[in-house]
Fold this protein.
Amino acid sequence: MNSKKITLTLLVFLCTTLLFAVDKKQFSSSISLKTPGNPAISYELKEKGNALVASQELPVTISRVQNGDKLTVTITAKDNIYFNFKQKIHSEFNHDDCQFYMPGFWYRRNLRSPKEAPSFHTSDSWTVREDRLSTPMTSIFNEKNGNYISVIRIDDFKYEALTTHKEGEVILSGKTSLGYTGFENMNGNATLSFGFPYQETPKTYIRKLTLAPSIEAFQFLAKGESIVLVWKINSGNATDFSDFIKQMWEYSYDTNKPQPVETGFSDDFVKETLTNFFRESFVSDYPLKFNSGEALEVATCESVARAEIGFVGRVLLNAFNALEYGKQNNRPELVKNSYSVFESYLEHGFTTNGFFREHVYYDRNTEAVNLSIRRQSEGVYAMFQFLQYEKNNGRNHPEWEKKLKTILDKFLTLQSADGSFPRKFKDDFTIADESGGSTPSATLPLVMGYKYFKDKRYLEAAKRTVDYLEKEIISKADYFSSTLDANCEDKEASLYAATATYYLALITKGKEQQHYADLTLKAAYFALSWYYTWDVPFAQGQMIGDIGLKSRGWGNVSVENNHIDVFVFEFGSVLNWLSKRYNEPRFSDFVKVISSSMRQLLPFEGHLCGVAKAGYYPEVVQHTNWDYGRNGKGFYNNIFAPGWTVASLWELLSPGRAEKFLTK
């Protein structure tokens, strides 16, 4: 009994020392007060019981109460004031020993991102407005001992206000619910920094690769009024950065408890509405037939003479989806158009060396010189879906099969010794971008090629891609540059990694399958971290907010591209599969949130959601103080690519395709 007591006491002691306890000495606080037309004045605050007081009388009273992990601050105005309240938690972690995490925006030190975007290249201390983040939380992870500490904001997040300026000291036009969060290097120690209303330091990120001077917002509080602010502080220990992200996502999910969004839009209604895109975007005036799906104007949705097989346009996948739907629902126009797409690509859609002509600009009489492993892979994926569907219905296409074998054989030539694929290359196999970030996109068609052609070379190549993923991406928790229009940490890298390992798990058995499943699980947490667990507030007059968009379930895109979108494709199927295999209900429950939420901006007559035509699902949904080039928060960019958004939603509403293809 004595030995058991000693062991138990030791375990309690170790657990207690591992947790980073926050006491009052580790806090520092200040408040900035602004008189309109004058620079703000900052006042350091000291604790006096539960009160926070300055060295001089202020027109405001502030109390702070810590109850367990909950931190509650009450600010009451004794006179009309404009304020910005700031807090810091000073850790004992050496800043240089730490990695940092702000969900959907900041991973490790953002060193994959260029200096023109938020990263350690520009500063080792950053604070940002909460609506940039998929959860309004910051965490610091000490790699030396595995300890971490996080702070998450708790609120109803009902309000947002417009400002007349995007930098400097700005007075809000009304109420906001948005504060700020981040981390700072304070004399060599890593520090959590958070407060209300928002600020962004040392720079604010206003559009793609454009950093602007810092901003500090001031909220009006009338005499006698109070505002209550609540944060939760969490600490613990993780074995590595991947385990840290897993714990942080579960904590974020459990804290916010996102629920499905009630839209009333059934799967059938969504698909039927999206078929209007198939019908109205069809272009038949050129050797290649295609649905116009990229570089369209939101205001008109008029077709543009550009054919892109993957990434953004998704011509071949849209053609297959339209064909399958047309056959099932007696839509001969859709069927006819789809077959004409496949026939035109069989005749005119290949380069000299047998790759897809992946991006043809008929409006410019040119085409992309650089090819990409991602677009090529997405084209092959779509064609395997088409060929298997046709074979299941008694129709064979030997010429197409020959074309796909040629591409897959070219893939084997392109694959590097370490299993990776170059992100971009030319038709003569010259490498244009050797980055391996897009490698997992090639895994899918290689696995499908093995299943369809019974050629083990393709399976061996697919396994080598995952050897590379495991060694260079998953084990290092370094998911980067899978998208083709940015060089940074991005959602698609982790999503594709999870999907790639899922495909290999489906095609293997026993211990090998379990290994791939474990890799899928690890990558999935990173992909999940980009998806919103809360609803961002919008101001009146910001169109997306006026429509009533709930952001939970939508995914941020990348460090460079701070907008949300409906990129999900097969990830819902991946999560449902993981949920069953690992008995993790959070995954399947969150799929319901994603699936319900991503229907909200479905455009149809009387509910066009700011686009010109029914079924043209919007793309660049700008939900924070950032724009892709036009319009800013609460609106879309003026140019969009409904080709991929329609394809993504269609895949989401067509669950289990990979399992049907690979296991039947």
In short: The chain is about 35% helix and 25% strand.
